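User: Fold this one for me? It's Transmembrane protein.
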Amino acid sequence: MPSPWSSQQRCLQRDPPTVVTVVVVVVVIKIIVVVVVVVVVVVVVVVVVAVVVVVVVAVVVEIVVKRKELERYTNA
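Assistant: Here's what I get for Transmembrane protein.
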C-alpha cells in the first residue's frame, strides 16, 4: 500500500508550475544572462588591453631599432 506522502508528491509533480516557481526560474535565467554578459565584457576588455600592449611594445621596439640604426649611421 503506497504511503500518503508518495501520492502527495505525485500530485505536486503533476501540478502546473506555480508563480513562485516561474519567478525563481526567471530570476535564475536573469542571473545567468548577467554572468554571461559580465564574462564576455571581461574577455573583450582583456583582449583589447592585450592588443594595446602588443602594439605599444612593437612601437617601442621599432623606435629603439631606428634609433640604433641612426646612431650607427651618424657614428660611421
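One thing worth pointing out: The first helix runs from residue 4 to 14.
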